[in-house]
Write a structure and sequence with these properties.
- It is a single chain.
- The chain is mainly alpha-helical.
- The chain folds into 3 domains: 93 residues, no CATH class; 94 residues, no CATH class; 86 residues, no CATH class.
- The protein contains 13 helices and no strands.
- The longest helix has 24 residues.
- The chain is elongated, with a radius of gyration of 25 Å.
């Protein structure tokens, strides 16, 4: 019995076009993405049969060939959709991708990839901190900053998600994984990722907090210690978020400062809080100032 599907939505057709162009880029740059993998991925994400997806991608091939644009190997240049789907595909290619630009798609520069990875890491940090964010808003801003189409930025972010997942790095849950990236792009993405991590770690270690900010951190530590001592149910991330808002510092930096306080107290024979592992990573000036504050304002635990 033939399965009946709901009409193709614009969102699903845009996803199919994105996947097709990712395959095209992969084939041009020696990537590992295959037509079969694209069929499986789009079918899984849209709830369609692979045969149905193939019909759409054959139609995309047909439309691309009409404009003398490069086409993917593995699909036929043949129109296999109804008029409504055909019209929507034409709109997507013309409006989102500017079909004439597909003929000479501008490669992503290192600085553009670095900006994309930085945006991705920011979303990842917010996700880990439980801070809500608007994915579309972030990608739209990045598209404006880079003077690229939103659809091109969305596709590149999907590629970055795939690269992160393949190398055991944190991924943003709301950004789907899409392979088909050339080896050179993968190398650059991983390289700029390492640069950003090193830069952020160095910044976290060298950036000096004011005495007022360190007092706030110590107060937050005391509150956490009291909650632990009373065996109350709480989420330490809520406390760190509150400290971040109060000091204007990033969540990760606030967590590090609380870990510094735990380390200092542990060195004085005190039992540190259990929910944050002690860390000695901090500038010498910060260590000395925190030590004085801990002496002047003892923690009960």
């Amino acid at each position: 019995m033939e399965t009946s599907y709901a009409p193709w939505t614009r969102e699903h057709l845009a996803m199919a076009v994105d996947s097709y162009l990712a395959l095209l880029e992969s084939q041009k740059s020696g990537g590992v993405l295959t037509p079969e993998a694209v069929l499986r991925s789009v079918a899984s994400r849209t709830g369609r049969s692979q045969e149905d997806v193939r019909g759409v991608l054959n139609t995309v091939t047909w439309q691309m060939s009409k404009h003398n644009a490069p086409v993917c190997k593995g699909f036929r240049a043949q129109c296999e959709t109804d008029d409504k789907v055909l019209a929507t595909l034409e709109q997507i290619l013309a409006r989102d991708w500017k079909i004439d630009r597909v003929l000479h798609r501008k490669p992503w520069s290192r600085s553009e990839l670095k900006a994309a990875v930085a945006c991705y890491r920011e979303m990842c940090r917010d996700q880990q901190a439980g801070v809500p964010f608007d994915r579309t808003e972030r990608l739209s801003k990045l598209a404006d900053d880079l003077s690229r189409k939103f659809s091109a930025v969305r596709l590149r972010m999907n590629n970055i998600s795939w690269i992160m997942s393949q190398h055991g790095l944190p991924v943003v849950d709301c950004i789907p994984l899409l392979s088909g990236v050339g080896r050179k792009v993968v190398a650059v993405v991983l390289d700029v990722y390492a640069e950003l991590v090193a830069s952020e770690d160095e910044s976290a270690l060298q950036d000096l907090w004011s005495e007022e900010q360190l007092r706030s951190a110590l107060d937050a530590y005391k509150d956490i210690a009291e909650l632990e001592a009373s065996k109350s149910r709480f989420d330490v991330n809520d406390s760190i978020c509150a400290l971040s808002q109060e000091t204007g510092r990033r969540f990760s930096y606030c967590r590090l400062r609380l870990a510094n306080i735990a380390w200092l107290l542990q060195g004085k024979g005190r039992t540190p809080i259990a929910c944050i592992a002690p860390s000695s990573e901090m500038p010498q000036e910060t260590c000395e100032l925190l030590d004085r504050l801990c002496m002047a304002h003892p923690v009960a635990k």
